[in-house]
Specification:
single chain; alpha+beta; OB fold (Dihydrolipoamide Acetyltransferase, E2P); five-stranded mixed beta barrel; 10 helices; binds zinc ion
Length: about 475
C-alpha cells in the first residue's frame, strides 16, 4: 500500500469516528429556540413536565365541592368560564354557579373575539363534555376551606374545575391544564390553593412558548383592521361601535332591496342576534355572497340609519378571499336557518342577558346582567309567530311603498302586534311576478308569519313590529 493511500484511509476512518461521535452525543451548538414546544433550529422537543398528573384532588378536604355526572354543566361560556347547575342555597340562590376559573385567563371568545379565544373555549368544552360522555365526572371546588364560595367583584364564583376523563381515571385540574397547555395567561396564578403548581405550569408554557405564548398567529383568527366581535356584542353595545369597522360571522336569513339580514345564535341567551347588512344592490357578486342560507363573514362599518342599526360600507373583493378585511361567504352550502318561534307575550317580556361591560377597568372582559324588552334584542332577527288573528288592515295608498300593507293582529288573549309588509307579489314561477298581493286576502283570517323584527319610527309611530319581505311568509291557517 502506498503511503498516500494509507493516509487517506486513516483520514476517512477518523472522519467516520467524528461522525459517529457527533451522532451519539447530540450536543446542540445553539440555544434552542422554542415555538410551541419544538426547537425551530433542530426539531428538538421541549420536555414538558406534566404538573396536572402530579396534582391530586383531596376529596376529603374542607373545601366546598359540587359534583355530579349528569346535567351538571348548564352552559359552556368560554375557556375560563362555565355555568353549573347546583343546589339552591344562599350562595347560589338561583341554582346556578357561574364558575370563573381561578389562576388562568384565557383569550376572549364571546363579545370581543381575541386570537386563540375559540381554541381555549373549545378545549374546555371538549374536556368536560367528553368526561361526561365517557362515564367520568366533573367537580367544582372552592379555593378556601372556610366553608365559603368566593365571588369576584362581578358575582361570578371563583373556582377550581376538575374532571375525570373516564370512570376509574384520576381527577385532573382543568385550570392547571389550561395553563400547562399554554391556552391562557396567568391570573394571579401563585396566590391560591394550588399556586405552586399553577406558577410552575405557567412558567413552563412560557418557556416552551406554547400557543398563546408562541408568538405564532392563530390560523383561525382574522388579523385585520376591523374589530372582531359577535352580533350580540354589536347589538348590546352599539354606541361603542358606531362608525367603527367591525367583523362578525353569521347566517343570512333573507335579503331585500340591497339589504341582507344576518344572524348568529347565542347559546347562553337562547336567542339569535341579528343585524341588517346594507350593500350596493347592483353589485351582483356581493349579493350572491349575501344570499339567504349563506354562512358569511361580514366586514363593514356600524351605522345608525334613521334609528335602525346596520352595517354598511362593506369591504368586498371576490379575488382576495384570504384578506381579513373582506366580506366573504365562508362555505358553499345553503344553510337552513330556523326562525325562533315566540308568542306576543314572549316578544314583549323582559329578558336579562349578560353583556360586556366596557366601563370596567383592567384587561379582562367583564360581563354585567342587563334587562331588555326581548323585542329590542331581536331587531334584525327572523322570528315566527303562529295563530295570529288579523283584526283589521291598512294599505299604503301612495308614495314609494304604495300597496304595502299592515295587518293589525291579536293573539287569542287579545295581545296586539303589528305585521307590516313590503309590496308583495305572487309569482308564476321563480322569476315571473303574476299579481299584487292585497290585504283583503288576510282580513279576519288566522295566520302564521315569519318576519324580521323591526323598529318602526315614522309619522309618530314608534313600535316594534314584524316586517314581511315575501308573500310565502304569511300563511293562512
Ligand atoms: Zn435546537
Amino acid at each position: 500500500m502506498k503511503k498516500t493511500a494509507l493516509v487517506l484511509v486513516l483520514l476517512l476512518a477518523f472522519g467516520a469516528c467524528i461522525g459517529l461521535f457527533a451522532a451519539c452525543e447530540p450536543k446542540p451548538d445553539h440555544e434552542h429556540t422554542w415555538v410551541n414546544g419544538v426547537c425551530t433550529q433542530c426539531d428538538a422537543k421541549y420536555e414538558i413536565v406534566d404538573y396536572v398528573s402530579q396534582l391530586k384532588l383531596d376529596e376529603n378536604s374542607a373545601t366546598k365541592k359540587y359534583t355530579t355526572n349528569s346535567n351538571f354543566v348548564r352552559m359552556y361560556i368560554d375557556g375560563d368560564t362555565t355555568h353549573f347547575n347546583v343546589p339552591t342555597t344562599a350562595d347560589h340562590p338561583d341554582g346556578v354557579l357561574k364558575a370563573r376559573y381561578l389562576a388562568v385567563n384565557t383569550p376572549e371568545s364571546t363579545g370581543q373575539v381575541e386570537p386563540y379565544g375559540k381554541v381555549a373555549s373549545n378545549y374546555t368544552k371538549k374536556k368536560l363534555q367528553d368526561a361526561i360522555a365517557n362515564g367520568g365526572a366533573v367537580l367544582v371546588e372552592s379555593d378556601t376551606d372556610d366553608g365559603k364560595w368566593n365571588n369576584d367583584s362581578y358575582g361570578r364564583t371563583t373556582a377550581w374545575v376538575w374532571y375525570k376523563p373516564e370512570a376509574n381515571a384520576d381527577w385532573r385540574n382543568l385550570n392547571l391544564e389550561l395553563l400547562q397547555e399554554g391556552l391562557g395567561f396567568g391570573s394571579d396564578p401563585s396566590s391560591n390553593r394550588y399556586g405552586e403548581k399553577c406558577l410552575a405550569a405557567l412558567n413552563q408554557a412560557m418557556q416552551a412558548k406554547l400557543v398563546v405564548h408562541s408568538g405564532v398567529k392563530d390560523e383561525n383568527y382574522y388579523y385585520g383592521a376591523a374589530q372582531e366581535i359577535t352580533i350580540k356584542e354589536l347589538r348590546t353595545n352599539f354606541e361603542k361601535y358606531e362608525l367603527v369597522k367591525v367583523a362578525f360571522e353569521g347566517y343570512v336569513t333573507s335579503s331585500y332591496d340591497g339589504t341582507s339580514y344576518v344572524q348568529q345564535y347565542d347559546e347562553e341567551d337562547g336567542i339569535s342576534y341579528g343585524i341588517a347588512v346594507y350593500y350596493n344592490g347592483s353589485a351582483s357578486d356581493i349579493k350572491k355572497a349575501l344570499s339567504p342560507g349563506s354562512h358569511v363573514r361580514v366586514v363593514g362599518t356600524a351605522q345608525d340609519f334613521n334609528g335602525t342599526w346596520q352595517v354598511s360600507g362593506l369591504s368586498y373583493n371576490i379575488i382576495n378571499t384570504k384578506d381579513p378585511n373582506n366580506t366573504i361567504r365562508l362555505d358553499t352550502e345553503t344553510h337552513n336557518v330556523e326562525p325562533m318561534e315566540l308568542t306576543i307575550d314572549q316578544f314583549n317580556a323582559n329578558r336579562t342577558v349578560d353583556v360586556v361591560d366596557h366601563t370596567a377597568e383592567g384587561e379582562e372582559t367583564v360581563y354585567v346582567p342587563k334587562t331588555y324588552p326581548t323585542h329590542t334584542l331581536l331587531v334584525g332577527t327572523t322570528v315566527k309567530m303562529v295563530n295570529l288573528i288579523v283584526d283589521h288592515t291598512y294599505t299604503t295608498p301612495d308614495g314609494t311603498s304604495k300597496d304595502a300593507f299592515t295587518l293589525y293582529c291579536k293573539d287569542s288573549s287579545g295581545k296586539e302586534i303589528t305585521v307590516r309588509t313590503e309590496v308583495l307579489f305572487k309569482w308564476n314561477d321563480q322569476t315571473q311576478r303574476s299579481e299584487l298581493v292585497t290585504a283583503d286576502e288576510f282580513e279576519g283570517q288566522t295566520i302564521t308569519v315569519i318576519g324580521i323584527v323591526d323598529w318602526y319610527n315614522y309619522n309618530n309611530h314608534n313600535e316594534y313590529q314584524l316586517r314581511i319581505l315575501d308573500y310565502k311568509n304569511i300563511v293562512i291557517i
